[in-house]
Sequence to fold (38 residues):
Amino acid sequence: MDVVAEAADGPAAVDAVVATRPDVALLDLQMPGLTGAR
Fold:
Protein backbone atom coordinates (compact mmCIF):
# COMPACT_ATOMS: atom_id res chain seq x y z
CA MET A 1 0.00 0.00 0.00
CA ASP A 2 1.34 3.43 -0.93
CA VAL A 3 0.21 6.77 0.50
CA VAL A 4 -0.35 9.02 -2.53
CA ALA A 5 -1.83 12.08 -0.79
CA GLU A 6 -2.66 13.65 2.56
CA ALA A 7 -5.11 16.43 3.36
CA ALA A 8 -5.82 18.63 6.37
CA ASP A 9 -9.52 19.22 5.63
CA GLY A 10 -12.43 17.89 3.61
CA PRO A 11 -12.18 20.10 0.53
CA ALA A 12 -8.45 19.35 0.24
CA ALA A 13 -9.20 15.62 0.58
CA VAL A 14 -11.75 15.77 -2.24
CA ASP A 15 -9.25 17.63 -4.43
CA ALA A 16 -6.56 15.03 -3.65
CA VAL A 17 -8.88 12.14 -4.54
CA VAL A 18 -9.83 13.80 -7.83
CA ALA A 19 -6.17 14.50 -8.66
CA THR A 20 -4.73 11.09 -7.70
CA ARG A 21 -7.69 8.74 -8.43
CA PRO A 22 -6.72 6.19 -5.73
CA ASP A 23 -8.20 2.68 -5.51
CA VAL A 24 -8.94 3.26 -1.79
CA ALA A 25 -9.38 6.48 0.20
CA LEU A 26 -9.30 6.55 4.01
CA LEU A 27 -11.00 9.60 5.51
CA ASP A 28 -11.68 10.77 9.05
CA LEU A 29 -15.45 10.94 9.60
CA GLN A 30 -14.97 14.13 11.65
CA MET A 31 -12.63 15.86 9.20
CA PRO A 32 -13.14 19.65 9.16
CA GLY A 33 -15.22 20.79 6.19
CA LEU A 34 -16.60 17.33 5.35
CA THR A 35 -19.25 15.26 7.11
CA GLY A 36 -17.88 11.87 6.05
CA ALA A 37 -21.11 11.01 4.24
CA ARG A 38 -20.52 12.22 0.73
Remarks:
- The two ends are 24 Å apart (CA to CA).
